Amino acid sequence: MKKLLNEFLKGIIRENPTFVLVLGLCPTLAVSVSIINGIGMGIAATFVLLGSNIIISLIKRIVPDRIRIPCFIVVIATFVTIVEMTMKAYSPALNRALGIYVPLIVVNCMVLGRAEAYAQRATVVNALFDGLGMGIGFTLALILISAIREFFGSGQILGQTLFKGFEPASIFAMPSGALLVIGLLLGFFNLLKNRKAQ
């Protein structure tokens, strides 16, 4: 049980896809203008990670090595299609807000990287916990970045104004603001990691 807990927690802390492995930054930069968008993308990526990790772990022995990557992409694309169709049916506004970045989960280096580096070598249970941990770690990173950008860029959190008279800085609502926030957070987490190591 402790090993499974470690598999789960590593995606949130030690191997966080955004702040430690620096993977999946394209959707992170693009959709993190609001917390709702961050949560939506995080849930979509978590579902795809979880499903693809489990299936890839199940089929690893029957997939020939020379067609491994195409097979992984087909599995990932299947789960992305499920997510996209579900989002179009039940949350069209969120689907429009996330736009092309939901279909692009298929080629997201975080998802394909987990399939290639971990799921194809792990047991089904370990792959499940790895996918869940990585997905939740990615979601938490998106929520943090989105909260900072939404507050400083619009003066609101989830559409609610927190401080009257607060003057938002429009740079945080722009792509350059995403780079600024991610850069500062990466620096902060590296500083914490170095202090812990010392």
SSE order and pairing:
Layout: H1 2-12, H2 25-31, H3 35-59, H4 68-90, H5 92-98, H6 109-117, H7 124-154, E1 156-157, E2 160-161, H8 175-197
Antiparallel strand pairs: 1-2
Helix pairs in contact: 1-7, 3-4, 3-7, 4-5, 4-6, 7-8
Textual characterization of the structure:
The chain is mostly helical. It has one domain. The protein contains eight helices and two strands. A hairpin with a 2-residue loop joins strand 1 (156-157) and strand 2. It is globular, with a radius of gyration of 18 Å.
In terms of structural class, how would the helical and strand content be classed? mainly alpha
Helix content: 55-70%
Count of runs of 4 or more consecutive helical residues: 8
Question: How much beta, percentage-wise?
Answer: under 5%
Please state the overall shape, judged from the principal axes of the Cα atoms: globular
Ranges where pLDDT stays below 50 over 5 or more residues in a row are: none
State the end-to-end CA separation.
Answer: 30 Å
Mean pLDDT: 90
According to DSSP, the number of beta strands is: 2
Major beta sheet, strand line-up: 1-2
